[in-house]
Write a structure and sequence with these properties.
Length: about 475
């Protein structure tokens, strides 16, 4: 018995010191430039020199509007997709626990009662008899001793898959914050545009009534009347369309939040929203390596490396151990008396000789690793493109806004002069219509540009990986 215990101790120490046969992991070089692109579209530096980096700016500091911050907090608690992502993390964590537990033996206590009647013709004494046996055992059944690291490699794979899932959850949380903020801004822009088209409709109706009176007394032509009427109908259609968009924006926001957003938390227009805090994108593109999706892709690559180790270990012998220690007796009363102890020790070794599936499985793991490398590099390239696009918008949006504002000022004056000339009979109503359309379109474009400016800043924050606070679960 002492020899058995000693042998088990030696085996356990060897097992604990075992290593895997997985290839050594080396992080691939990022397939993108080390710095952000430069050029005419990136000349304007919107960020302040003292602005913090995106990674150092938690989202609660980045989002400065109190109402929007409250809505995001609610979304982080109620959004069902985020809840599913969190549950997926718990699932992979449990799977990792199963893989870790496979390294340890399963110890079971077994109690048996055996009773048998032997007929006379089978009895050595020639007389029938009944035998009984009672036993209680504590044992290990088919414990695989991980000499070559097969189970340890599978455990490492499960760990990396768990970490990848956790990063996916963090990435989804960041995407949810961005989606709620951008949906909030879109609602504000559409509400502002709805007010614009409603005011335009009122102005068009007033103008139409005046022209109709002039037409009735012969001071305006029928074509002027019909042109004015067409503008009223166009404006009425725009009011209906923007009313629809506002309702759909509210529905989209409610879905993201997971509950009905209170009316007092909703924005009236873009100007009523406090702009997000400025931050710096930095110079180096190395920040991309901390993006949740990039980190998750790297964990999946590490999982592929670990899986190769498990496939390699399959070519080597598997050693398993079954052992029991207990007591047995023909009489229940003598089950725990001195001298009733029993034990068994049954090691087993399985040596693979030929199994073509093992070779193909090994080839599969190598191909999966190459696929994971390609996916990791593609994720980095996609991230670089997203940041570069956002920086291009940030570098030019202020110039676009300045030009659009100047255009609005110009067409406003044009519209005023065209209306004045028409009222004095100097020009036709066609000039007024052209000025109205230009004025209306320019104002709509200005609203959309202001929306693009705010949305781009939120999108850039997301593409850079957000702040450190997003690494925590709904912190």
């Amino acid at each position: 018995m002492k020899k058995t215990v000693l042998l088990l101790t030696v085996v356990l120490m060897f097992f604990l010191g075992a290593c895997t046969m997985a290839p050594r992991y080396t992080q691939p070089e990022p397939p993108v430039p080390s710095e952000w692109p430069s050029g005419a579209a990136y000349e304007e530096k919107a960020e302040k020199p003292t602005a913090p980096a995106a990674a150092q700016l938690p989202w609660r500091d980045f989002i400065t509007d109190e109402r929007l911050r409250e809505i995001i907090e609610t979304a982080l608690l109620n959004n069902r997709d985020l809840r599913m992502a969190a549950l997926n993390v718990e699932l992979t964590k449990a799977m990792y626990g199963i893989s870790t537990a496979s390294l340890l033996p399963s110890v079971n206590a077994i109690g048996t009662w055996f009773r048998e009647r032997v007929p006379a013709d089978l009895s050595p004494s020639g007389s029938a008899y009944t035998s009984e046996k009672f036993s209680v055992n504590l044992g290990i059944t088919a414990w695989e001793i991980d000499f070559f690291g097969r189970i340890r490699s599978l455990k490492d794979k499960a760990l990396e898959e768990y970490l990848a899932t956790e990063e996916a959850r963090r990435g989804f949380q960041l995407a949810l914050i961005s989606a709620v903020a951008q949906s909030y801004l879109a609602l504000a822009a559409d509400r502002e545009a709805l007010k614009l088209v409603t005011a335009t409709l009122e102005a068009q109706e007033t103008s139409y009534k005046l022209i109709r009176k002039r037409y009735e007394v012969g001071m305006a032509s029928e074509i002027d009347l019909r042109r004015a009427q067409s503008q009223v109908e166009i404006a009425r259609g725009d009011v209906a369309r923007y009313s629809q968009w506002v309702a759909q924006d509210e529905n989209a926001l409610n879905l993201l939040v997971g509950s009905i957003v209170k009316e007092e938390l909703l924005p009236a227009n873009l100007e009523s929203i406090s702009p997000p805090k400025e931050f710096s994108a930095g110079v180096s593109s190395e920040v991309l390596l901390r993006r949740p999706d990039v980190v998750a892709a790297e964990h999946r690559l590490k999982a592929a490396h670990a899986n190769i180790g498990a496939a390699r270990a399959a070519f080597f012998p598997r050693i398993s151990l079954t052992t029991t220690v207990g007591t047995a007796s023909a009489d229940l009363a003598g089950l725990f008396k001195s001298g009733s102890g029993v034990w068994s020790f049954a090691p087993q070794i399985i040596m693979p000789i030929f199994d073509a599936r093992t070779w193909f499985a090994y080839r599969v793991t190598k191909v999966e690793r190459e696929m994971s490398v390609a996916q990791y590099e593609k994720t980095i390239q996609t991230a670089f493109r997203e940041v570069a696009d956002a920086l291009a918008v940030k570098g030019t949006i202020n110039k676009q806004l300045a030009a659009q504002q100047a255009l609005v000022d110009a067409v406003t004056e044009t519209y005023r002069l065209a209306q004045l000339r028409y009222d004095k009979g100097i020009d036709s109503y066609l000039s007024v219509l052209d000025a109205q359309r230009s004025f209306y379109s320019a104002q709509q474009a200005l609203i959309m540009l202001r929306l693009a400016q705010a949305s781009n800043l939120i999108g850039l924050y997301k593409t850079l990986g957000g702040g450190q606070e997003n690494q925590d679960n709904n912190k």
